[in-house]
Amino acid sequence: MDTYEPRGRLPEEWARRAACPVCQSIGLEINHAEGSPDRMVCSGCRVSFEIALDFTHLRLVRLPDRQIVNRIDLIGCWVTPVELRAIVDQPLTAKQLTEPVKKPVEKPSITESKSILATLPKMTQDEVNKRAVHLAALGNSTETVRVALERAGATAEQIARGQAEIVRVRQQKFNSQKTGLWVIAILAILALLAFGAWLFIGGAIQ
Length: 206
Hints:
Elements: H1 12-17, E1 29-31, E2 39-41, E3 48-51, E4 58-62, E5 78-79, H2 81-89, H3 110-113, H4 116-119, H5 125-137, H6 142-151, H7 156-205
Antiparallel strand pairs: 1-2, 2-3, 3-4, 4-5
Helix pairs in contact: 5-6, 5-7, 6-7
Protein backbone atom coordinates (compact mmCIF):
# COMPACT_ATOMS: atom_id res chain seq x y z
CA MET A 1 0.00 0.00 0.00
CA ASP A 2 1.30 3.41 -0.89
CA THR A 3 2.30 5.64 2.01
CA TYR A 4 2.59 9.40 2.07
CA GLU A 5 3.68 11.95 4.61
CA PRO A 6 0.83 14.11 5.93
CA ARG A 7 1.15 17.88 6.18
CA GLY A 8 1.67 18.77 9.83
CA ARG A 9 -0.11 22.13 9.82
CA LEU A 10 -2.97 23.35 7.65
CA PRO A 11 -3.87 27.07 7.48
CA GLU A 12 -7.42 27.99 8.43
CA GLU A 13 -7.85 29.91 5.16
CA TRP A 14 -7.38 26.65 3.23
CA ALA A 15 -10.29 25.08 5.07
CA ARG A 16 -12.60 28.02 4.39
CA ARG A 17 -11.96 27.69 0.65
CA ALA A 18 -11.85 23.89 0.40
CA ALA A 19 -14.54 21.52 -0.91
CA CYS A 20 -15.37 18.31 0.92
CA PRO A 21 -14.18 15.31 -1.15
CA VAL A 22 -17.21 13.30 -0.03
CA CYS A 23 -20.26 15.62 -0.10
CA GLN A 24 -18.68 18.57 -1.99
CA SER A 25 -19.73 21.09 0.66
CA ILE A 26 -17.63 24.26 0.55
CA GLY A 27 -15.94 25.41 3.72
CA LEU A 28 -14.21 22.96 6.06
CA GLU A 29 -12.78 23.16 9.56
CA ILE A 30 -9.29 22.40 10.89
CA ASN A 31 -8.86 20.04 13.81
CA HIS A 32 -5.56 20.82 15.56
CA ALA A 33 -4.31 17.93 17.72
CA GLU A 34 -1.13 18.15 19.77
CA GLY A 35 1.47 15.74 18.44
CA SER A 36 -0.60 14.79 15.38
CA PRO A 37 -1.00 16.21 11.85
CA ASP A 38 -3.86 18.67 11.37
CA ARG A 39 -7.08 17.20 10.03
CA MET A 40 -9.76 18.74 7.86
CA VAL A 41 -13.33 18.17 9.02
CA CYS A 42 -16.54 18.69 7.05
CA SER A 43 -19.35 20.19 9.13
CA GLY A 44 -21.86 18.65 6.70
CA CYS A 45 -21.01 14.95 6.53
CA ARG A 46 -18.46 15.01 9.41
CA VAL A 47 -15.76 13.22 7.43
CA SER A 48 -12.26 13.89 8.77
CA PHE A 49 -9.01 13.41 6.89
CA GLU A 50 -5.33 14.33 6.64
CA ILE A 51 -3.70 15.74 3.50
CA ALA A 52 -0.44 14.53 1.95
CA LEU A 53 2.47 16.94 1.60
CA ASP A 54 2.20 16.94 -2.19
CA PHE A 55 -1.60 17.48 -2.11
CA THR A 56 -2.22 14.38 -4.24
CA HIS A 57 -3.74 12.10 -1.59
CA LEU A 58 -5.80 12.22 1.58
CA ARG A 59 -6.15 9.77 4.45
CA LEU A 60 -9.48 9.25 6.17
CA VAL A 61 -9.39 9.22 9.96
CA ARG A 62 -13.18 9.41 10.40
CA LEU A 63 -15.90 8.20 8.04
CA PRO A 64 -18.76 10.52 7.05
CA ASP A 65 -22.18 10.21 8.69
CA ARG A 66 -23.66 9.10 5.37
CA GLN A 67 -22.59 7.82 1.93
CA ILE A 68 -19.72 5.48 2.94
CA VAL A 69 -20.48 5.32 6.64
CA ASN A 70 -19.84 1.53 6.68
CA ARG A 71 -16.58 1.54 4.71
CA ILE A 72 -14.33 0.94 7.72
CA ASP A 73 -11.72 -0.50 5.34
CA LEU A 74 -11.04 3.05 4.17
CA ILE A 75 -9.85 4.26 7.56
CA GLY A 76 -6.12 4.95 7.40
CA CYS A 77 -5.88 4.45 3.63
CA TRP A 78 -4.26 7.01 1.35
CA VAL A 79 -6.50 7.68 -1.66
CA THR A 80 -6.85 10.44 -4.21
CA PRO A 81 -10.01 12.57 -4.10
CA VAL A 82 -11.03 11.09 -7.48
CA GLU A 83 -10.68 7.55 -6.13
CA LEU A 84 -12.68 8.47 -3.04
CA ARG A 85 -15.37 10.10 -5.19
CA ALA A 86 -15.63 6.91 -7.29
CA ILE A 87 -16.03 4.83 -4.11
CA VAL A 88 -18.71 7.19 -2.78
CA ASP A 89 -20.65 6.92 -6.04
CA GLN A 90 -20.57 3.11 -6.09
CA PRO A 91 -23.44 1.10 -4.56
CA LEU A 92 -22.41 -0.43 -1.24
CA THR A 93 -22.17 -4.23 -1.15
CA ALA A 94 -21.15 -6.64 1.59
CA LYS A 95 -18.03 -7.53 -0.39
CA GLN A 96 -16.86 -3.93 -0.42
CA LEU A 97 -16.64 -3.88 3.36
CA THR A 98 -13.57 -6.12 3.28
CA GLU A 99 -12.01 -5.85 -0.19
CA PRO A 100 -8.99 -3.58 -0.71
CA VAL A 101 -9.47 -0.07 -2.03
CA LYS A 102 -9.41 -0.15 -5.84
CA LYS A 103 -8.59 2.67 -8.18
CA PRO A 104 -11.24 3.54 -10.78
CA VAL A 105 -10.62 1.81 -14.11
CA GLU A 106 -12.06 4.52 -16.30
CA LYS A 107 -10.42 7.89 -16.69
CA PRO A 108 -12.27 10.37 -14.45
CA SER A 109 -14.30 13.06 -16.12
CA ILE A 110 -13.83 16.77 -15.48
CA THR A 111 -16.74 16.67 -13.02
CA GLU A 112 -15.24 13.73 -11.11
CA SER A 113 -11.87 15.42 -11.02
CA LYS A 114 -13.28 18.32 -9.03
CA SER A 115 -11.94 17.80 -5.54
CA ILE A 116 -10.53 19.47 -2.49
CA LEU A 117 -7.17 19.74 -4.24
CA ALA A 118 -8.64 22.09 -6.81
CA THR A 119 -9.68 24.50 -4.06
CA LEU A 120 -6.48 24.35 -2.03
CA PRO A 121 -3.77 26.94 -2.65
CA LYS A 122 -0.48 25.54 -3.88
CA MET A 123 2.78 25.90 -2.02
CA THR A 124 3.84 29.42 -1.22
CA GLN A 125 6.98 30.80 -2.84
CA ASP A 126 8.73 30.68 0.52
CA GLU A 127 7.93 26.96 0.84
CA VAL A 128 9.19 26.34 -2.70
CA ASN A 129 12.41 28.26 -2.05
CA LYS A 130 13.14 26.41 1.20
CA ARG A 131 12.46 23.02 -0.37
CA ALA A 132 14.56 23.87 -3.44
CA VAL A 133 17.54 25.00 -1.35
CA HIS A 134 17.24 21.93 0.88
CA LEU A 135 17.14 19.53 -2.08
CA ALA A 136 20.10 21.26 -3.72
CA ALA A 137 22.07 21.10 -0.46
CA LEU A 138 21.58 17.33 -0.46
CA GLY A 139 23.40 17.16 -3.79
CA ASN A 140 20.43 16.82 -6.14
CA SER A 141 20.82 18.04 -9.70
CA THR A 142 18.87 21.01 -11.07
CA GLU A 143 16.60 18.67 -13.03
CA THR A 144 15.94 16.47 -10.00
CA VAL A 145 15.02 19.54 -7.95
CA ARG A 146 12.72 20.78 -10.72
CA VAL A 147 10.89 17.44 -10.95
CA ALA A 148 10.53 17.18 -7.18
CA LEU A 149 9.05 20.68 -6.94
CA GLU A 150 6.74 20.02 -9.87
CA ARG A 151 5.41 16.86 -8.23
CA ALA A 152 4.88 18.81 -5.01
CA GLY A 153 2.53 21.15 -6.87
CA ALA A 154 4.79 24.15 -7.52
CA THR A 155 4.09 26.20 -10.63
CA ALA A 156 6.67 26.78 -13.39
CA GLU A 157 7.15 30.35 -12.18
CA GLN A 158 7.63 29.21 -8.58
CA ILE A 159 10.16 26.60 -9.69
CA ALA A 160 12.12 29.20 -11.67
CA ARG A 161 12.24 31.47 -8.63
CA GLY A 162 13.20 28.54 -6.43
CA GLN A 163 16.13 27.70 -8.70
CA ALA A 164 17.15 31.36 -8.68
CA GLU A 165 17.10 31.17 -4.88
CA ILE A 166 19.47 28.21 -5.03
CA VAL A 167 21.92 30.31 -7.08
CA ARG A 168 21.55 33.24 -4.66
CA VAL A 169 22.19 31.08 -1.60
CA ARG A 170 25.19 29.42 -3.22
CA GLN A 171 26.62 32.81 -4.20
CA GLN A 172 26.03 34.13 -0.70
CA LYS A 173 27.78 31.09 0.76
CA PHE A 174 30.68 31.50 -1.68
CA ASN A 175 31.05 35.19 -0.82
CA SER A 176 30.96 34.37 2.86
CA GLN A 177 33.66 31.72 2.44
CA LYS A 178 35.75 34.08 0.32
CA THR A 179 35.46 36.80 2.97
CA GLY A 180 36.50 34.30 5.60
CA LEU A 181 39.59 33.33 3.56
CA TRP A 182 40.53 37.01 3.15
CA VAL A 183 40.24 37.55 6.89
CA ILE A 184 42.41 34.51 7.59
CA ALA A 185 44.99 35.69 5.02
CA ILE A 186 45.12 39.20 6.50
CA LEU A 187 45.51 37.83 10.02
CA ALA A 188 48.30 35.55 8.82
CA ILE A 189 50.11 38.48 7.18
CA LEU A 190 49.73 40.59 10.30
CA ALA A 191 51.08 37.73 12.39
CA LEU A 192 54.10 37.40 10.10
CA LEU A 193 54.72 41.16 10.21
CA ALA A 194 54.47 41.15 13.99
CA PHE A 195 56.87 38.21 14.18
CA GLY A 196 59.29 39.94 11.78
CA ALA A 197 59.11 43.14 13.78
CA TRP A 198 59.76 41.20 16.97
CA LEU A 199 62.82 39.54 15.42
CA PHE A 200 64.09 42.91 14.10
CA ILE A 201 63.62 44.66 17.42
CA GLY A 202 65.15 41.74 19.30
CA GLY A 203 68.18 41.71 16.99
CA ALA A 204 68.66 45.48 17.31
CA ILE A 205 68.64 45.29 21.10
CA GLN A 206 71.27 42.56 21.11
